[in-house]
Specification:
With about 300 residues, the chain is α+β, with helices and mostly antiparallel strands. It is about 45% helix and about 15% strand.
Length: about 300
Amino acid sequence: MDIRFKQKSKIIDISIVLLAGIASVGMMIYAVFHFGLKNAWNELILNMFYMACLVMIAMYFFKVGISTNQFNYWCSVCVGITVLLRDILFPPPLINYPLHLACITLSVILVLMLVFFYSRKDWKTYSKRNLWMICIVDMVLAILYHIDIILEPTDEYTAFLLTEIWIRPTITYGLVACFVKEDDIPEQQVQSTELIRTSQSWDGVELPDYLQGRPELVAIKYEIPAGQKLSWHHHPVMNHGILVQGELTIISENGKNKVVHEGEAIVEMVNTIHHGENRGSKPVILYMFYLSQEGLPLSVQHPDILEDVV
């Protein structure tokens, strides 16, 4: 499966985020069943948004239907919703008043940061620095929650909260780890390989001048079975092509011959009788391009030279 990042450090970062997030969400699901919805309903709602972020991180990492801007935007929106729900509308009870005040303040700052970043007209310029600011504030907030929970008498639900409060900082770090602007994605360079440049056909004869009159450009794909011989013919117009499969032997009436191999280009003879043979074991696939003129045939057959060709 194709992945977006090739650097080992990025892969490790994102793998840690996904594993930590999945473990934390798994513990939350266990807590819902263990403590009941009455105690853990708010955590269940929060974790729906956490799970959405983890799914988007995985989709982005594996290049599954989500762009950089969509990833940055929707993951951060989910983070903003969890800040409103967990830290402002339904904050956890904190026994230490200074810590409680600090957590509320940081939560408001976190929401304002998200609103500021996305209220701008140029929100697509969202930078890694913006994400680091969100991540750092969220981690400080989690540390303060952690300190307050440690100060409380330890029980089974408190142990659960000690793990749950680190889900979102893990996800915000995942946003940092995944971050890459569209402009930062290395542009795929167009590669060009000149297959042939010549004013002569394959037998060394100079090509004629271009035809006068209205031009007609023709492209034809030929498929020649193994062992097949073409009839003797000549071309009144210039043409060239590329052999994409197999091996073709071209023989002129005067005995000259040339073997064209897979991937090679060929410039055909003009007004010289010749024919081709597939002496290989697999079908020949040949693309030919004719510089013709309206009303002219691309080739003229000579059945009198060889009557039993197909």
